[in-house]
Amino acid sequence: MVRRKLEALGYHSADTFDINDSRQFRALVLWLEDQVIRHYKIEDRDDLRNIDSKLWDSSFEKYCKDLECPIAFTEQKECLEWVVGLAVKLEYNDDKQKYSKQVSDVIKESKSSAPIVKSSNPLDNLDFYSDEFRKGVNALADMLQITPHPNHLITLEAICTLIIQSLASENNLTSSKEGKPFPIMESDLGFDMGDYILNQAAKVLRLLYIHDLRDLQTKINECIVAVQTITANPKTDTKLGKVGF
Predict the structure, then answer these.
(1) Which candidate, 71, 97, 74, 73, places its Cα nearest to that of 86?
(2) Statement to judge: residues 77 and 98 lie in one domain
(3) How many distinct structural domains can be found in the chain?
(4) The dihedral of CA 77, 78, 83, 88: what is its sign?
(5) pLDDT in tens, 143-201
(6) Over the Cα atoms of the chain, what is R_g?
C-alpha cells in the first residue's frame, strides 16, 4: 500500500523502497517533508535532514506530534504510513481539479467498456407503478374477492398469499409427512453415568432439550418471515440480484 502511494507521489525510489531499512525510512520522511508536506520552515528541517544521527528517532517523534498523528509513536511503520497518506491528501488538495478530471475520465472509460447485459426476465420490463399495472392488480383482486388496498403493491402481496395457500391446500402441502421414529432410547449418549435408569433419564432430557431448540428455531423463522412480509417489495430486478429497492 505504501509503495503505491509513493508511486502516486512520484517518489524516485518507490519500486525499491524497503520500510524495514532504517536509512531508507529516514530518507523518505525527509523527502516527504521537503517535497510535499512542508510543515517546517527549511531551517527547521535540519534534525530530520541528519538521517545518520542517533537522535533522529526523537526528531521523527516530534515531527509526528507536530503533524498531529493519531498513532502511537511506538508503531513507527504505522506512523510512516499515516505521514505518507497525509502527503497524498495534501498533493491531491493542491491540484484537486486535475485529479478529479483524471478520475472522471477513468470512470467514463470503465462504463463505456462494461458489457450491456439484457435480462430475459419479463418482470424486469414491467412498470409496477403504471396505471395499467395498478388497474390489472385491482381487477385480479375483484376476481378473487379480495378487498383492494390503497397501495396496489400490498394488494398484490395479498393476492400472492391467497394463491399460495390455495395451491398448498389442493396439493396437501400443508399436511405433515410421516417421519421414521428415531430409536433415541437405544442411542449412545457419548458418556456413561454408571446406572441404566440414569442413562435413560439423560436421554429423555436430551430429547426434551432438542425439542425446545427446534421450537425456538421455528419461532425465530416465523419472526423472520413476518419481518420479510413487511419489508418485501414485489419489484424484482434479477440483473442486480435484488428484491425491491
Answers:
(1) 71
(2) yes
(3) 3
(4) positive
(5) 988 888 888 889 999 998 888 888 877 666 555 566 677 676 777 777 777 888 888 88
(6) 35
